Structure prediction request, 127 residues.
Amino acid sequence: MINENDFNTVVDWSELRAFNGLWNCISPELVLSSEFTGNEIPFQKRKALFFYFVHRLLKEGRLKLAKDGHLLSGSIDDQIKLFYDAFPKTADGMFDKQKLMDDYWFFDDSCPAEAVWVLDDGSLEWT
Prediction:
């Protein structure tokens, strides 16, 4: 999917930020090993990469998912499915109603998860 260097670069740029930070870092400028050039990665490919990052970070214990101040329960696969099933099907679904903010969905009530980063000392950084 992507090489290890690109994975680490994107995580370095997005770590401790809300999910819109990770979403925005999945770009041709930071994911150099992708076959995409130009200004952006097509939505469905970007979505697949986003979930690759989230899944891997969860499995590595570097990230947790939460909603309304509570960590999500269930297996990693169950949490990913919940998040994936709610994720917009098209790029238009990421926008607010006025089409001013293209990553608005991450802050909307319909988004079932927020990023909680696990720090080296085991403490949690809520976004």
User: Anything to note?
Assistant: The CA atoms of residues 67 and 113 lie 5 Å apart. The domain at 4-126 is CATH 1.10.3510.10 (NMB0513-like). The chain has a mean pLDDT of 90.
